[in-house]
Amino acid sequence: MSRVPRSMRAGLGGLVLALALAVGACGGSDPDQPSSPAASASADPQAAYPATDLGASDLIGHMAATGDLALLQSLRPTTADYQALFEPDFAERAQRAYEKQMWSSMPTTPKPWADPDQTEVRVWGAKTEDIRKWTTAVRQNFPGGYNKIKHYLKPGLTMYSIKVVRPGDDLGMAFNGLTHVNGHWAYFPKPWRVLDS
């Protein structure tokens, strides 16, 4: 686990309960294609976030502070991302569920994911092999729902469970399912909810 204090910008409002409740992409768009020519021509919004614990921390810290819409859009998994992370049957089911429940509409204005005084980012990364084994470290740092879908995860990737908290607090905003796959970050929050879809 790494703890990375971050200075959030003053005046940020709103508590975001979960990305799954608040975000999405333009309805009817193809997740394998850029949303517009302008989007494809713009700089890569993920360029500042390498495939490391610090990259994961900085990415979520930035989203917690700003709700950056371009970065949010870039986190939308492609078909290839679902296929790389999940076993085939679950991959198809997960893509249908996420597209319907989460990525069906994109917010039109940025909305921070955390309160202004939640300035500490705590990161736990786990290999999918360890999640499948449901190790002690995974049990301590990941939601119990992962135990329900652990056998659908393919080996060889790292998933992150992240909290954004007030310094000294244990409770705060929880984000899980951030994964670096196919050369970029993608977000698969609360994947066990796919089982209910």
Explain how this protein is built.
- The protein has helices at 19-22, 37-41, 53-66, 69-74, 79-85, 88-101, 128-133, 136-141, 146-149; strands at residues 2-5, 120-127, 158-165, 172-181, 184-187.
- The chain has 197 residues and is of the alpha+beta class.
- The chain has one domain (17-26, 44-196).
- A 5-stranded antiparallel sheet has the order 1-2-3-4-5, sandwiched between helices.
- The chain is globular.
- Mean pLDDT is 83; it is low at 2-29 and 33-41.
- Keywords: Signal.
- It comes from Paractinoplanes ovalisporus.
What attributes characterize this protein structure?
signal; Lipoprotein; single chain; 9 helices
Mean pLDDT across every amino acid position: 83
Overall SS class:
alpha+beta
Instruction: Output the helix-strand order.
Output: EHHHHHHEHHHEEE
- Rounded to the nearest angstrom, the distance between the terminal CA atoms is 32 Å
Q: How much strand?
A: 15-25%
* Poorly predicted tracts of residues: 2-29, 33-41
Total number of helical segments?
9
Q: Looking at the structure, what is the overall shape? A: globular
The largest pleated sheet is described as: 5 strands, antiparallel
| Tally of DSSP β-strands | 5
Strand order of the largest sheet: 1-2-3-4-5
The tally of structural domains comes to 1
Indicate the percent of residues in helices: 25-40%
Query: Using only CA atoms, what is the Rg?
Result: 16 Å
Organism: Paractinoplanes ovalisporus
Protein name: Lipoprotein
Signal peptide: 1-25
Keywords: Signal
